[in-house]
Design goal:
The structure is a homodimer. With about 350 residues, chain A is an alpha/beta fold. Chain A has a single domain, classed as TIM Barrel (Alpha-Beta Barrel), CATH 3.20.20. Helix content of chain A is about 40%, strand content about 10%. The radius of gyration of chain A is 20 Å and the shape is globular. At the A-B interface, helix 7 and helix 9 of A face helix 7 and helix 9 of B.
Chain lengths: ~350, ~350
């Protein structure tokens, strides 16, 4: 495999172009995915390594993105709670977590099919594979609420009302995440992302007191594997610093926080991932292009992995994402460097911080 | 009516104690509300001035809060779309907004029962009445999506895809808000709050381009009425400055942004409202008290109206809110000044910025 712009960007090194991938790039918005999966459950597909690997590779072939992300779900490594993924809803949990007795149901044994799928992808993929796991608050919220939630009241009641039990729960979930991520990396994943998607439901002091130790323990346990560690969540503008403090190498930013603001909170050397509003992919191309260019401008010339600020929406037209990948690559390729796809040299000088004369953005 | 700590705080003036009220203080969590309303629809109750006034006064009597807020809903002034409030869901719209032809359905004629309820409350209430209206993005999102939404994709598609129609829509919604708020103030409301609850779904540049002009027009139109203007939304950490720029006298802050951080974004003279996590009211009293004290500490000694960071959750025990009001009043009353309720003089010196010797927070 040639040197990867994605991995270089994660490490804050110089890149030939800004790398780009999309959260949920593998999945419902792709016709080839819908055809392959048919009517089965998402979890059924995630449990079949050959199918999961093929689904993972579909967007890599179609879009020429700079990273693959394993087709799976953050709830997959959590067994023993009657978990399913309800279409249009998300993870639902038949037997929610209620008391200390439920801790025993949390087994730290990643299902072998995840690593097997990672192995198949790593063998085939022309770009690095990102393994992933759920963040402690996010996973706990599904287990305690029994599914997605708007206000997380049951989760927070447990957190504040039984802090020791809560600590045991997020500690166990951290151990599950570590085991799953380690297995994915050993199978060939070159980077990992922690989806702490709903962590932004907590105030910064609460996240610090009740969740950060578990997040830190995940990130520290992974350090020896020497792969970039990305942490992402939505509505986390006030938590970005905490993610970084906990040991994230790359901080994912949703579209609510301009990347320039995020960088000012994290410091000049920080590496950011994001942050186009996923709904912008449903807008006319001219709007989408303007929005993408604004993201690149805010990000500055280095320390940026282009992505959406949350997952690809199911209604997204793949043609829009194709053009978007080409735009990011062509706009950011160094003069004289052919981009990764069909696009020619771009207009943004890399590493100088200054746009070239021809830059009209 | 004696001088109001709530109105003084809104104007940034010295206060005898930090005033407190709660968004959704009138409603489902109160047994006297459930008894009074019976099985009817929320909108039926909002349409009966005598009932709406009585419901508005219930929490004023029970809690001794420093302001009343009219029992109604932001969707009430929007007629012609088949609006209802679905229990546990929120506003739903039978015939959503789809095209320019739908603009004619947006009539700028506030229903007379809102002002009539305000008049009844203003006559009876020992504390100022807050009138309210929905913010332009928030109202537009209900009309376009047909109800609450997670990703606002249809709303944003209209906004980006048909910016002129969008401008007409939010302009008309602004006019409806102004007419409703003016009627409430003329009927006796002493302050107004714009609930731009879902504005945080937009990035700051998008909010600035597509919504801020409409918000500004509301706030400017109200200026001549000389009542404090509050603007509030959730996940709006990056929009606080825009709300202030648009003319808000008081900026509501959700629990995600520590008030000290909010003040640093808005400037030292700013007046903030908030920002306790509503879920904390479901926690054990000791936790709730700690969280409330942390809010008071972050807010500093002036320019603060205590509130939750979003509405009272229906599962909230009224006894918790009673203790919370007493805590805020007693902790912030000037030494030697009897608080408004049964609580004695508090421990926080007002206006000096320094806690007194006995302060153990």
């Amino acid at each position: 495999m040639p040197p990867s712009p994605f991995l270089a960007a994660c490490r804050g090194e110089a890149v030939p172009w800004t790398p780009v991938w999309f959260m949920r790039q593998a999945g419902r918005h792709l016709p080839e995915y819908r055809q392959l999966r048919g009517e089965g459950s998402i979890l059924d597909a995630a449990r079949r390594p050959d199918l999961a690997a093929e689904i993972t590779l579909q967007p890599v072939r179609r879009y020429g993105v700079d990273a693959a992300v394993l087709f799976s779900d953050i709830i997959v490594p959590v067994t023993g709670f009657g978990v399913d993924i309800a279409p249009g809803v998300g993870p639902v949990v038949e037997e929610p977590f209620r008391s200390a007795a439920d801790l025993d149901r949390l087994r730290v044994e990643p299902p072998p099919y995840v690593a097997e799928a990672a192995r198949l992808v790593a063998k085939e993929s022309p770009v690095p594979l990102i393994g992933f796991a759920g963040g402690p608050f996010t996973l706990a919220s599904y287990l305690v609420e029994g599914g997605p939630s708007r206000s997380y009241t049951t989760t927070k009641a447990l957190m504040w009302g039984e802090p020791r039990l809560w600590g045991d729960l997020v500690g166990r979930l951290a151990a599950i995440a570590v085991a799953s991520l380690r297995a994915q990396v050993e199978a060939g994943a070159s980077a990992v992302q922690i989806f702490e998607s709903w962590g932004g439901a907590l105030s910064p002091p609460d996240y610090r007191s009740y969740v950060l130790p578990a997040l830190r323990s995940i990130l520290e346990s992974l350090k020896a594997l020497d792969v970039p560690r990305i942490v992402f969540g939505v509505c986390t503008g006030e938590l970005l610093r905490l993610f970084s403090e906990a040991g994230a190498d790359v901080v994912g930013v949703d579209w609510r926080v301009p990347l320039g603001v995020a960088r000012s909170r994290l410091g000049p050397g920080s590496v950011l991932q994001g942050n186009l509003d996923p709904a912008a992919c449903l807008a006319p191309w001219e709007v989408l292009a303007q929005q993408a260019e604004a993201v690149l401008r805010e990000a500055g010339p280095a320390g940026h992995i282009f992505n959406l600020g949350h997952g690809v929406l199911p209604a997204t037209d793949p043609a829009q994402l194709s053009r978007l990948v080409d735009l990011v690559h062509s706009q950011t390729s160094s003069p004289g460097t052919a981009g990764p796809g069909t696009a020619g040299p771009g207009t943004m000088a890399r590493g100088t911080g200054a746009p070239t004369a021809g830059d009209d953005r």
